[in-house]
Specification:
By secondary structure, the protein is of the alpha+beta class. It has five helices and seven strands; from the N terminus they run H-H-E-E-H-E-E-E-E-E-H-H.
């Protein structure tokens, strides 16, 4: 009789253990699905917006600093005229432009590395995946990792500024990649920052070779 009681107890105990394991497995699967399909998209969108804003701000500060220290129109663009004053060629000062691109790249990389070390703070309520709790509660620090190589590209535009006058503007575009390390996934965020670095009013007729083509931009972008 006692053996039957023990066997019955063991049988009931095994059944309870199996039920607990099944419930625990279902709970784990539910949590994983909730994290992947509800929480993760909210965290990714929140962190992406913050990272993009911080990255662009960091790059803008670097570009402004370098421009303030080094850049004038005459240092980047060389305009050659003939004896009558007519514009013959417009060329880029490749040495100065390359030094400028390298300086911006190096300082921007350092700025993003510092930003990555500091990370970004996301309120813990955002991890709930519920809009009502998004942005609420104590902050959780999310680490970032700058990846790849920052890429600089120069662009210029010519616009009419009056009779026989043309406004020439030079822009610098900086492209960067930042990887955000999330609890459930990693997200790579691409950023593009464009700033006008200098401009000048050119008096005289500009040859169509430069006015209606990308030839000057190609001369500026000698180093990728």
């Amino acid at each position: 009789m006692k053996n039957k009681t023990n066997k019955s107890f063991i049988k009931r105990l095994k059944r309870k253990i199996l039920i607990c394991l099944a419930v625990l497995s279902c709970l784990i699967v539910t949590i994983i699905c909730y994290l992947n399909y509800v929480v993760n998209p909210v965290i990714i969108s929140t962190s992406a917006a913050k990272v993009r804003s911080l990255s662009q701000r960091a790059v803008e500060n670097v570009v402004r600093q370098v421009i303030h220290e080094n850049v004038m129109y005459d240092t980047l663009v060389l305009i050659m005229r003939d004896e009558s004053g007519k514009i013959v060629t417009i060329s880029s000062n490749s040495a100065t432009i390359n030094m400028l691109a390298l300086e911006v790249t190096e300082k921007a990389q350092n700025a993003l590395s510092q930003m990555g070390a500091n990370g970004i703070d996301i309120p813990i309520g955002s991890f709930s995946g519920m809009p009502i709790f998004t942005g609420r509660g104590p902050a959780v620090n999310i680490k970032m990792l700058p990846i790849g190589t920052i890429f600089c590209k120069f662009e210029s535009t010519f616009t009419e500024a009056g009779i026989n006058q043309t406004n020439h503007r030079i822009y610098l575009k900086v492209y960067s990649s930042v990887s955000v390390i999330l609890p459930t996934a990693n997200q790579t965020i691409q950023t593009e920052t464009q700033l006008m670095i200098c401009e000048s009013i050119i008096v005289g007729e500009i040859p169509d070779t430069y006015l209606h083509s990308d030839s000057l931009d190609e001369m500026m972008n000698l180093i990728p």
